[in-house]
Amino acid sequence: MFGPQCSGKTTLANRLLGDMEYISLGSEVRKPTIDDDIARRARELIRDAEEWPADLGMKFIAHSLSDAIKGRRNILLDSYPRRIDEWVVLRDF
Question: In the chain, which stretches have pLDDT less than 70?
């Protein structure tokens, strides 16, 4: 799923989950284990209401996404990709 902020992606995701692995960009961004430099950059962009580079979101979800793929689980991504350039990063993952 992708769409603008506050468009109901998370609400819909929670209704669709079933046996899917749920990976949320927002949840990953808030994890304390994320690399400090990446987290700092994300906080700056959020604070300044600036658009993220296409690959920044992938830096947050890559580990969880890789684990789900290795486990051959169905995946529901929340909040990534939001734009075509982010989809290209995800496609090439």
Answer: 1-2, 33-34
